[in-house]
């Protein structure tokens, strides 16, 4: 924490701030510059609290220096990326791990067809929504527990573990009984009770970046889960909200190298939500792999034009197969394999 | 819904789209323009589903025409603004309704002092957090039920009803037993299970706009609550996320006239979260009233520089009193009163 | 400038950075915190250059501390707001100064009608575009010099000085021969040769904030003009680009108190471009005055539905007159007058 | 253009709008839906003008349907990507074209060293700024004509053509006498007189996307240049402004597939400005190639920690060589070659 005094701050104001800092039990190191005086605050502290120092007389602003996350940060004892295992699916190793499946579970037949296609194409994991966060209360809200049962069945048939979203603290136990990995959706990235509850299941968690969340916000959300003792977290970049309207969201692929530098957690990319258009998915999936992502999450539907949700951004099974083939040389070029 | 064909779309492609539209049970009205053909789709439909028509051959894009919210929309039977009563506090009438109080309940003495100050200055309602959505798991998370009890006590002493945030579906009943109005925080604006649960209590709801939510998103969140039969909703503009770093958020005051035009629900503005700096609060509070807001929500603390959260944006009790006086002529200028 | 070392930085890395700092002729003050070491750099320096220190071994990042603008900043010798006079129109005094007129000059009759209406309603200055920055090369680009001549004529008839945009360094002399004040449009806020050229005319300048410009960017653009010796600058908030689509731009009224705190230059608000909808203009104009703006710039057209540009956001003459009346009590409430 | 009537619009209002449409010489096709009436407008028209129809009584809003650009759009007569030749450098063919060089020309020796390194590593073109758009008037503004001469010399020595930015209409002729390709910088993307002037030189143009420009805005800027008869345009994605602060800008790689679909012009990506950090450049350069970019523009400096500008985002010559090698298998994976 560095407290920056106003250009014309008096010596008395500087002394006042130093006194307040010491009153809180911290050390104060004033440095008199050419134009400004700054005061470095040293101590083991809750920085957020100290931000109120901006209210002290003569203070211009308070600059935070430390990163607020610790467990999610790069730590000396962890070399490279932490490996998260979800049954046979492994995130953070040399293999590229592709999660695929429909936006929502709609029917047994449809899910079975997609699951078979995903497995055959080399997907490592199945996805599908049983509880759907829909912006309209008048649209399909998911098959709920019946959807979970269908996912379990499809998972057992194909040998692919599955991830599904949980939106409500009251549902965490139920969903955790079925799913191999719990997804925190973008709209719940800062639903703190849900983060804690999901963390406490001990299950691996797929944590999606919020629509207006910075990379630091995402790591703080991971920190919430990790503070429950559960460090099995896979981060997911899925696009942020910007002024651009040609895409549903703006996929921020620079989050991949940034997260790799700031954190030891594996990172996957969701080019389906990240773009909103199936015709963009292959280009952005390839880009994500080239940028160093540990995996992908892709929406696949047996008949996208009839999907009850996210049709415009869902690949057909054939398109998904073609994508998996196209990804192979890219994966190899960055030192990864992709075959199951 | 209007389907816009690509510039070079063939007659066969147009026929194909028309056939698909009819197959779904809708009417199709093609219009051949100079450069393009568009097809208007008529029927009582779930528009979201039809967006997948962008995948049909020859289609350029699908333009939504209808507004997706109905109960929250301006309706012929409702003239002006719906009046929401929270005990003696009234939103949507000729009186400007000011909610004030600390970010978080920290102690009995502090809360009592603030509540007294708010009441004396003409505030109509008390606010205070008992469960706090903190971005760090290592910071103060609220006094929980003890905080609710203190709020109740302060409310009874001053005669001011109180609003407090609920973040977890499991806590809704408990919080509803204490509070006069339930707040949905910005980070939970699209926490759909919470919206439903809060709606079902029948209590008045203060619904804050999400950090990256459009005005339409906000009205869709209101629609979620209203679809439970509870129409007692007050909308709250509290700033959106933009590239600007001089403010914590960018307070979008144009949301006030926009919401007034698109909806019949009352609108309040939170200049504290909307700016993040107490020195900006008076200017933006005055601006909000001039823009036509039905009320304000302002953070007030007995000693902001010692507040455990939101200190930089909290007014002192004296600053709040001065603000209330300064608001009087502005309120009067737009045909409102403010005295209790 | 504060250099923040990485969490695990070695003593040798710290020494290396200190050596480099000294090699550039600055002083280095290392402070060893609980988790991190930071090094404060003292000296009269070009901060931008020093940002490359983030490349040195062991450095996490470089935090800028100083404000990069000097002339545009609050300065001890200037109390309150600098007053800028444009003939009889005065910005920064106790009177609220309203600039109004059409987006583009279209015809002699139309301009005359609007100018008369603006003067009669108490407007202090006329606006109108002769050279128009249009996003399409196929639309009306302005009447050019003929438009300037019409503005001059309307100005002489009404006694209102006028402001008009200049977009091209080659046109600055010509436009300056006619206009009382030169406007730098939002899209040219970082057209640095134009800023210099306009500054050198010595004419008062209306500087509009760019669509994606921070408040600091705006003040740096002002600094460019001021570094030519011309300090007659009026800043104009006109909306920034965000994800919201209900408005053409998001009018950032918090820029008013922010600019008032960081700078001594007067500030006006353009609610027409700031919203894009004439039905929003009155609410936002009132809000701007309540927030402390020194003036407004409003688009007015004799027949908005037939305007060649910006029709949707233009007020009729009658609407402008009604707005001016509605502004009077708001202006008075914040200690301003508005009558001519 | 589709005019959407308000939910409760009367038949008289619909008739009024139809009358106005016909009065402007267009055809009107009303379609009566379940909830709404829409009126499609047919005719060869300036759409922008018609947006003022939102002011007519009973109208809710006006939805634009046509794309406003024509020459920059995908056209039936152009298959694939238009190939732009800049001497031996070719954009839009099977070879990936890499432009590299320093942010600013600083000295003969430095430029010579970088140019040699770029050529040796397989770069196809040299870049370097002689006129720099600096946000501060107090920092290095470029070597001006002397810088152009140095670029010319380095170009002749290495055989690499060069691109350099022109910021001022008055400088276009001078810069065009030296440079092989003219760059329009991000801050000038909507400097319309400059677009016209540069277009008229007939020289190839590198057009960078503005910080807050949509993909449509970028194509409209290209349209401006193309309307002068000069179709030799290479588009450049270089990051947009968002709320994220971990990067200087948010590199929007989805612009690559979007521009490829909407336009026939070649697209390059600038990962240096797009991220602001040299450690991110390799990941994003690889991602850009995987996404289908026709080339890259990369900042390279002989000693980035001593660069007068953009040091933090500049690669060393050795880092550039390593990047070029790493790009080879990615290029090959998407059917491109990269060797010179």
List keywords for this structure.
4-stranded antiparallel beta sheet, 8-stranded parallel beta barrel, alpha/beta, 11 helices, 2 domains, Alpha-Beta Plaits, TIM Barrel, homotetramer, 340 residues, elongated
In short:
By secondary structure, the first copy, chain A, is α/β, with parallel strands linked by helices. Chain A contains 11 helices and 14 strands.
Topology:
The structure is a homotetramer of 340-residue chains.
Chain A: E1 2-5, H1 11-23, E2 27-32, E3 37-42, H2 47-50, E4 59-63, E5 84-86, E6 89-91, E7 97-101, H3 108-121, E8 125-127, H4 145-158, E9 162-165, H5 172-178, E10 181-184, H6 192-200, E11 205-208, H7 215-226, E12 233-237, H8 255-262, E13 267-269, H9 271-275, H10 281-291, E14 295-299, H11 317-333
Parallel strand pairs in A: 7-8, 7-14, 8-9, 9-10, 10-11, 11-12, 12-13, 13-14
Antiparallel strand pairs in A: 1-3, 1-4, 2-3, 5-6
Helix pairs in contact in A: 3-4, 3-11, 6-7, 10-11
What does this structure look like?
- The structure is a homotetramer of 340-residue chains.
- The first copy, chain A, is an alpha/beta fold and 340 residues long.
- Chain A has two domains: 2-63, Alpha-Beta Plaits (2-Layer Sandwich); 84-338, TIM Barrel.
- Chain A contains eleven helices and 14 strands.
- In chain A, the strands form three sheets. The first copy, chain A, has an eight-stranded parallel beta barrel, surrounded by six helices.
- In chain A, helix 3 (108-121) runs parallel beside helix 4.
- Chain A is elongated, with a radius of gyration of 23 Å.
- The first copy, chain A, starts with a strand and ends in a 7-residue tail after the last helix.
- Chains in contact: A-B, A-C, A-D, B-C, B-D, C-D.
- The interface between A and B is large, with 51 and 51 residues.
């Amino acid at each position: 924490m560095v407290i920056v005094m106003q250009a014309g701050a008096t010596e008395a104001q500087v002394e006042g701030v130093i006194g307040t800092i010491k009153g809180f039990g911290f050390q104060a190191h004033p440095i008199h510059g050419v134009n400004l005086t700054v005061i470095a605050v040293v101590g083991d502290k809750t920085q957020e609290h100290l931000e109120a120092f901006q209210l002290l007389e003569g203070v211009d602003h308070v600059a935070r220096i430390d990163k607020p996350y610790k467990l999610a940060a790069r730590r000396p004892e962890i070399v490279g990326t932490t490996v998260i295992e979800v049954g046979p699916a492994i995130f953070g190793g040399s293999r590229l791990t592709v999660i695929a499946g429909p936006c929502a579970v709609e029917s047994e037949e449809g899910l079975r067809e997609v699951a078979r296609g995903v497995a055959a194409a080399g997907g490592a994991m199945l996805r599908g929504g049983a509880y759907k966060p829909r912006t309209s209360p008048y649209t399909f809200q998911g098959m709920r527990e019946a959807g979970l049962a269908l996912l379990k069945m499809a998972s057992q048939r194909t040998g692919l573990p599955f991830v599904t979203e949980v939106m409500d603290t009251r549902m965490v136990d139920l969903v955790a009984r079925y799913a191999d990995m719990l997804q925190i959706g973008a709209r719940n990235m800062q639903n703190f009770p849900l983060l804690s509850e999901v963390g406490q299941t001990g299950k691996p968690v797929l944590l999606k970046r919020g629509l207006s969340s910075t990379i630091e916000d995402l790591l703080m959300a991971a920190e919430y889960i990790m503070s429950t003792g559960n460090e099995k977290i896979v981060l997911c970049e899925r696009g942020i909200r910007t002024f651009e309207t040609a895409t549903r969201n703006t996929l921020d692929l620079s989050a991949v190298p940034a997260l790799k530098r700031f954190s030891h957690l594996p990172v996957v990319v969701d080019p389906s939500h990240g773009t909103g258009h199936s015709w963009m998915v292959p280009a952005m999936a390839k880009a994500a792999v080239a940028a160093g992502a540990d995996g992908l999450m892709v929406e696949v539907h047996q008949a996208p034009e009839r999907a009850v949700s996210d049709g415009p951004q869902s690949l057909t099974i054939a398109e998904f197969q073609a994508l998996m083939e196209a990804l192979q040389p890219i994966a190899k070029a960055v030192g990864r394999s992709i075959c199951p």
